[in-house]
Structures are given as structure tokens and as C-alpha cells.
Design brief:
Elements (H helix, E strand, L loop, with lengths): L1 E2 L2 H21 L6 E7 L3 H17 L2 E7 L5 H13 L5 E4 L9 H7 L11 H8 L8 H12 L8 E5 L6 H9 L8 E5 L6 H5 L4 E4 L17 E4 L3 E4 L7 E4 L4 H4 L5 E2 L6 H17 L5
Parallel strand pairs: 1-11, 2-3, 2-4, 5-6, 5-7, 7-8, 8-11
Antiparallel strand pairs: 9-10
Helix pairs in contact: 1-10, 2-10, 6-7, 6-10
The structure holds guanine.
């Protein structure tokens, strides 16, 4: 069994980004600028945004954060989106999710200039991705493709099962893996909460991408020998035996599934670091204005 080291792969990608940013600065082009918009005080969102800021700075990308109170109105947020769309100093921005319930997420995402949508959530970017056109691709699925590529894991002709159909991970992942492209050409089955006889499907998979949002959902008896496992989940579960009183775990019963797998990502240290690196890559791409 080979443990897929997301930290190491992310460091490699970040080094490549840092080299490109340094070359831009040498050529008197301003450093790319990434903005994060954070509404309210969700602790997980604050942690994500802090990691994004730190990672940006480490590669030479300028980073700033707009922190808005939870009572911010939808109009005020849309006005900020308009402002960032029109600010030439800003190359890309993200609006951290989840948003407070009184704000319509779709309206906010649809308002972002798709050329600055480094999350790849805008319908224009999703549509272009489906058509195989150059676009800003959602960071987590993009990071997963990079991991598969780094470890030379063949996708062509393979049976890949994606667990979960979210707009952020499962749906774009299924599309990317089935495209006629490098790190594509797979036969993809997208499974979700209404899938019947799930085990029968997962047992046939050469590769499983678990993004179902349930701690340790995928068990050893659901997979075949030599399967490749990519675990997108991140859950904090109570564990009295640990010093902190909790431990982090993914959507996969790692201890048991690892015994059967040929490759597997750990949680933490697998997919997570790649997501941030892919976001930085998108920011660089947006700054280069190569996407029409
Ligand atoms: N919340 C959890 N993951 C993400 C992400 O990738 N982007 C944004 N904007 N919000 C998130």
C-alpha cells in the first residue's frame, strides 16, 4: 500500500507557482492578488481563510480578506462583489461558503465575474468545463487530478466511482474524469444517497473518490483488493482516548480500507493541502488573463 502524500504534492505545485510569480515580478508585472470574502464567524471558514492567506503569501501571491458581519445584507454583499469585479488590482476572489441563511448563494456566485471566479463555481466556468473548454476548475477536483497524475495512477478505461454529487466536488469530479483528456477517459459512476446496492457498485471500482460527507462511510467490505482510494471527507469526531478529545477522520474507514488498497490518501494530509494549492494555481491563471 502506498500512502498518497498530499502535503508533498502540494509543496511541489506551490514551488512551481512561486517560480512563476517570481518571474512575473522580475518582468515588472504585479504579483497576482487573491481576495477572500468571509461573512459571519463560522470557525471552520475562519480556519480555511487563514490557511489560504498563509499559503498565498508563501508563494508571493498578494492576499487580502474582507471580513463582514453575519448581519450583512445580500445587497451589501452583491455590492462588494461588483466592487471586486471592477477592481483591476484584484485578479481573483472567493466568497467563502457557507453564507448566512438570509443570503442567496446562487445570486452571489452568479454575480462574480467568471474570469475572477477562482473557486470555479460560476455557471460559465462549470459550463466551459463540461464542454472541455479552458476554464477555472473547482479546486478540490483539480487537486485530486493532480494527485492522481503525480502518483502516475492511470484513469484511462478504469472504473471510477465517485461518492457524492455536490456542486463543489462530486459533480465536477465525475465530469472531469470522464472527459476525453489526460487524467480522464474513465468510466465513471456517480453514486449518492439514493443509490441502490451501493456495495455492488463500489466493489467493482478501480478508483473510489469518497466525497459523501459521512465519517468513515466507506468500509473494507465495500471495496476490492488493490483499489485506489481518494478521501475528500474531513470530520472532527469525539475520541476520549486522544489528548484533544477529538480526532480528524475522512469519509473512509482508513485503518481497514488501507489494508486492501494499492494507494490511499490520509486525512489530514491528503486532499486538503491540494485544494489550497489548486486555488493558488487558479489565481495565477486568472492573473495571466489567459482564460477568455
Ligand atoms: N467552503 C468550503 N470549501 C470551500 C471552497 O472551496 N470555496 C469556498 N468559497 N467556500 C468553501
Amino acid at each position: 500500500m502506498i500512502l498518497i502524500d498530499g502535503k508533498e504534492a502540494a509543496s511541489k505545485l506551490k514551488r512551481e507557482i512561486a517560480t512563476e510569480v517570481a518571474a512575473m515580478i522580475d518582468a515588472n508585472i504585479k504579483a497576482p492578488h487573491l481576495v477572500a470574502v468571509l461573512v459571519g464567524d463560522d470557525p471552520a471558514s475562519q480556519t480555511y481563510v487563514a490557511s489560504k492567506e498563509k499559503a498565498s503569501r508563501a508563494v508571493g501571491i498578494t492576499s487580502s480578506v474582507y471580513r463582514l458581519p453575519a448581519k450583512t445584507t445580500e445587497k451589501e454583499l452583491l455590492d462588494l462583489v461588483d466592487f471586486l469585479n471592477n477592481d483591476d488590482e484584484v485578479d481573483g476572489f472567493i466568497v467563502q461558503l457557507p453564507l448566512p441563511k438570509h443570503i442567496n448563494v446562487e445570486r452571489v456566485i452568479n454575480r462574480i465575474d467568471y474570469r475572477k471566479d477562482v473557486d470555479g463555481f460560476h455557471p460559465m466556468n462549470v459550463g466551459k468545463m463540461v464542454l472541455g473548454q479552458a476554464s477555472l476548475v473547482s479546486a478540490t477536483p483539480q487537486g485530486i487530478l493532480y494527485l492522481l497524475e503525480t502518483y502516475k495512477i492511470e484513469t484511462k478505461g478504469k472504473n471510477i466511482v465517485v461518492l457524492g454529487r455536490s456542486n463543489i466536488v462530486g459533480t465536477p469530479m465525475s465530469i472531469l474524469l470522464s472527459r476525453k483528456a489526460a487524467m480522464g477517459d474513465a468510466t465513471v459512476t456517480l453514486c449518492h444517497s439514493r443509490t441502490e446496492n451501493l456495495s455492488e457498485i463500489t466493489q467493482k471500482a478501480d478508483i473510489i473518490i469518497a466525497a459523501i460527507g459521512q465519517p468513515e462511510f466507506l468500509k473494507a467490505d465495500m471495496v476490492k483488493k488493490e483499489v485506489v482510494i481518494i478521501d475528500v471527507g474531513m470530520h472532527r469526531i469525539v475520541d476520549e482516548k486522544t489528548e484533544k478529545g477529538y480526532r480528524l477522520t475522512g469519509d473512509v474507514d482508513f485503518k481497514e480500507v488501507a489494508k486492501k488498497a494499492s494507494y490511499i490518501t490520509p486525512v489530514p494530509g491528503g486532499v486538503g493541502p491540494m485544494t489550497i494549492a489548486a486555488l493558488l494555481k487558479n489565481t495565477l491563471l486568472a492573473a495571466k488573463k489567459e482564460i477568455e
